[in-house]
Design goal:
Organism: Astatotilapia calliptera
Mean pLDDT: 80
GO molecular function, one term: transmembrane transporter activity
CATH architecture of the largest domain: Up-down Bundle
Strand order of the largest sheet: 1-2
Keywords: Membrane, Transmembrane, Transmembrane helix
Subcellular location: Membrane
Structural class: mainly alpha
Membrane topology: Multi-pass membrane protein
Number of strands: 4
Low-confidence stretches: 1-30, 466-495
Order of helices and strands: HHHHHHHHHHHHHHHHEEHHHEE
Number of domains: 2
Oligomer: single chain
CATH class of the largest domain: Mainly Alpha
CATH topology of the largest domain: Growth Hormone, Chain: A
Distance between the termini: 30 Å
Radius of gyration: 25 Å
Length: 495
Amino acid sequence: MDNSGEVSNDIRTVYAAVSREPNSDLKNGQLFKLYKRRWFVLLVLCLLNCSNATIWLTFAPVANQSAQYLKVTLDEINWLSLVYMVVAIPLSFATTWMLDTLGLRITLILGAWLNMLGAVLRFLGTLPGESFKIQYPIVMLGQTLGALAQPLIVFAPTKLAALWFPDHQRATANMIASMANPLGILLANIISPVMAETSAQIPKLLLAYAIPTCIICVLATVGIRSSAPPTPPSASAETSNSEPFVQGIKLLLTNRAYLVLLLCFGSGIAVFTCFSTLLDQILCVKGYSNDFAGLCGALFIVFGIIGAGILGLYVDKTKKFMEATKINMSFCAVACIAFSVVSLMPQQKVAVAAVCSFFGFFGFSIYPVAMELSVECSYPVGEATSAGLVFVSGQVQSVVYIVLLQALTTRLADSPLSTCGEAALSWKVPMMVMAGLCTLFTCCFLVFFNTRYRRLEAEEQATYGTRESQHLYRNEHPPWRHKAADNTEETCHYE
C-alpha cells in the first residue's frame, strides 16, 4: 500500500506538470499552438535588419563620390560608418533591458522609426541648397539615428525565436533574421557603386535607400500587434523574462561557461569585423584590384549565408549547439591562418577567393548558433541580455583589434605591385597576429567551454515532469484522460 501511495503522488506530479495552464493547449495532439503570424514578424525583422545594414555601409563603396559631393575628407566619410560602432557599445545595455522588459513589439517599432527617420534625414541633408556647410552634419545626424536603431534590431532575432517559434525552429528563425544583416551589407556594396557613379547621383542613391525604410516602418507599426503570441510555442517562452535585468547580469557574470563564450566568440566577431574592414587595404598591396577585393567580400558573405542556412537546419534537428560551434570555430581558425598566408602572395586570385569563401562558409554560420548557445547556457536569463552582451563583447574587441592591427603595419619603401593609390603598408605582421589571436581563442573555447542545455532541459521538465514520474505514469496509465481548460475531456499521449 505504501508503494501505491508513492505511485499516486508521482502520477499527480506528472498530471500537474502537463495540465497546468501554460501547457493546457493539447488540441490535435499538440502540446503548444503555433501561429502563422510568426512568419510575418520574422519577415519584418529581416527587412529591418537588411535595411539598417544598407544604411550603415551606404557611403563606404562610394567614399570618393560622397566626399566630393559633401565637400569633406575621406576620414569624415569613414566616420559615417564608424558612428555605428561608437553608438552601439554604450546603447547595447539599454537595448537588452528594453527587449527583456518592455517587450519585442515596442523595441522593433522604435527601431523601425529610428531607421526610417535616419534614412529620410540623410536624403534631405543632400538636397541642393544655397550652402553646403550644413549638409554633412545633417547626414551624420541621419546616420546616428540609424546607429541608434541598430542594437534594437540586431539584438532581436534571439528574442523573436524564443517567443514565437517552437524548439525545433528556433535556430532556423534566428539564422534567417541574423543573416539578413550581411545580406544588407552585400546589397549596399552592389547598389551604391551602380547608382552613384558620379558625385551628383548621391541624393538619388540616398532616396533609393530611404523609400524601403518607410514601407518597413508602416509594416512594423501596423502589422506587429503584440510582443508574443496569445499562447506560448514552448515551455521556455513563458519564462523568457523570468530574471530581472540586473539579476540576470549578476547570473551571467558568475556563469563560467557563458564567460568563456563571451570572450572567445566575441574575439571571433572581432576577427570577422577586421576582415571585412581591412580586406581591401590588405589585398591592394599585392596588386589585387578593388573589384577583386569586392568580389572576395561578396563571396565571403554569400557562402556565409549558405553555411548559416545549412547549419541552422542541422542544429534545429539535432540540438548539437556546442558540437557545431566548436567544429565550425576550428575550421574558422584554419581559414584565418590560410588567409594570413595567401593574402601576402601576389597573383593568387583563385586561392584568395577560395579561402574567403571557406572563411565565410564556416564563420558566418557560427553566429546564429552561438547566439542560441548563449541562451541555452545562461537560461533563465533573458535572451536579449545573454545574446546582447556577446555582441557588445564583439564590438569592444573589434575596436581593440582594428586599432592594434593598424598600429602594427609598417610603410613599404618599394611596392611595385600596389594598387592602393597611396603609400603601401606591410600587413605581414598584423595578419600573423590576427591568425594567432583567432587560433588562441578557438583553442580556449575548445578546451574550456562545456555546458548543459538549460533551456531545453527546462522545457522537457515543464512538459513531461521528471523522467521517473513519466516512466511510472506510463506503466500505470499509458493513455489517459483529463479535463482541459474548457472543461472538455481530451486524450493525451506522451511523444
